Amino acid sequence: MSRGAYVGLLSLVIALALVYYLAKDQATTVGRRGAEAPVGVASAAKCIANQRTLESVIAMYRMTHDGENPTTLSDLVPRNLPLIPECPEGGAYLYDRNAGTVSCPNGHRDER
User: Fold this and answer.
1) Which residues, including other chains, have CB under 8 Å from residue 58's CB and lie 6 or more apart?
2) Residue 93 near residue 54, CB atoms below 8 Å
3) What's the gap between Cα 74 and its chain centre?
4) Dihedral angle at the C-alpha atoms of 110, 112, 97, 108, nearest 10 degrees?
5) Where do the domains of the chain lie?
6) How far is CA 23 from the centre of its chain?
7) How far is Cα 45 from Cα 39, in angstroms, rounded to an integer?
8) Going residue by residue through the chain (112 aa), what tens digit of pLDDT does each one get?
9) Which residues make beta-bridge pairs with 101?
10) At 94, which helix (H) or strand (E)?
11) What span, in angstroms and rounded, lies between the C-alpha atoms of 58 and 70?
12) Eight-state DSSP code of residue 74
């Protein structure tokens, strides 16, 4: 296997571990919020986890591309992600290339 293949595989493993960790973290946070609308809370939690995952993958991309952010989120497929997630309530994430951040078109934000 070439070095590039190892980096790609390592990136995928790290991304999957982050998704698991962040989704687990969101599940416990959502459980403490009480009896809010469960579907809306679950959608928001999934959306926030998606945003965190995308930003983590963007950071990994930056490490392997001399500190440059991807031009578009599509640059992450298929090497870093199998596909670009969307908000569970619909809509593609908005990407700020200069900051390397994503935001939800429906206003879901990570309050941490």
Assistant:
1) 69, 70, 76, 100, 101, 102
2) yes
3) 13
4) 10
5) 3-103
6) 11
7) 10
8) 666 666 666 666 676 666 666 665 555 444 444 545 566 788 899 999 999 999 999 999 999 999 999 999 999 999 889 999 999 999 999 999 999 999 999 998 877 6
9) 96
10) strand 94-96
11) 7
12) G
Q: Encoding tokens for residue 99? A: 């900051």
Element (H, E) at 22: helix 3-31
DSSP string, 79-90: TT-SS--B-TTS
19: tokens are 């998704």
| Cα–Cα distances in angstroms (integers) from residue 52 to residues 66, 78, 93, in the given order | 22, 18, 12
Report residue 20 as tokens. Answer: 């698991």
Instruction: Identify the burial level of 45 via C-beta atoms within 10 angstroms of its C-beta, where 0-12 means exposed, 13-18 middle and 19 or more buried.
Output: buried
Which residue reads 């980096």 in tokens? 7
